[in-house]
Design brief:
InterPro entries: DNA-bd_dom_put_sf. The protein is mainly alpha-helical. The protein has three helices and two strands. A two-stranded antiparallel ribbon has the order 1-2. Helix 1 crosses helix 2 (20-28). It starts with 8 loop residues before the first helix and ends in a 9-residue tail after the last helix.
């Protein structure tokens, strides 16, 4: 199922169980994928973009999802 809602730092943080500041730091250090959309200078990602990133990132903590 494709989710049409875009995710901000807050939704990504909830998905990977970290604080939003941690996700901001990941982006600052080039560890997040390029945003799918920018609005008023704020980045947003499609949930599927983040799910693929989570599945492939080193130290993946998502088990059985």
């Amino acid at each position: 199922m494709t989710d049409r809602k875009l995710w901000s730092y807050k939704e990504i943080a909830a998905h990977i169980r970290v604080q939003p500041d941690t996700v901001r730091s990941y982006r600052k250090h080039g560890l997040l994928p390029k945003p799918d959309h920018m609005e008023d200078g704020k980045p947003y990602w499609h949930p599927d973009t983040i799910r693929v990133w989570v599945a492939n990132r080193p130290g993946n903590r998502a088990r059985g999802s």
